[in-house]
Amino acid sequence: MFSPEIEEVVKHRSRALNIVWLALTFSVPIYAVVAYVVVSGQAAPVQSTDDILRIVFAALAVIHALMAQGLWFFLMNNASSQAANVGSQPAKTEVEKVLGKYFVAVLVVLAINESIAIFGMIDAILSGLLDRILIFVGAALVLNFLRKPDAARFLNKVTSRTM
Predict the structure, then answer these.
(1) Residue 4 contacts residue 12 (beta carbons within 8 Å)
(2) Helix (H) and strand (E) counts for the chain?
(3) Where are the domains of the chain?
(4) Can you list the residues of the chain whose pLDDT is less than 50?
(5) What is the pLDDT of residue 162?
């Protein structure tokens, strides 16, 4: 559909996005392992935590999950509006700008999703309880898999909308 030059740009961006996605997705279970190692090695919780603190971490995780989804749609609209100036046969620089905005959207959302697992790790370490970290890690992983990047599909979608 696109020229070979554009295909190469998309291929390069896709490779970089997939590496970032893999790194941020596979770091999430590591937080559970860190919490397990720390909690199993301590005789008692680092500090006595109230249920209030656990509720705060859960609330922060929910807020971050909702914020990530809202930011995703906002940033995707921003990238799509940038693509409105791109025709069916875009120039290389135009494609790089649009994919740059897509890259930023993916990176920001993945980082926010990762913070959910970090909240779970902190909660587990402070409370000495490992039960809920799986919920935090599971939520972060599900959100990351929902936002697995596909630069070619994104570019096809936004350029077909502008034709």
Answers:
(1) no
(2) 5, 0
(3) 4-162
(4) 162-163
(5) 46
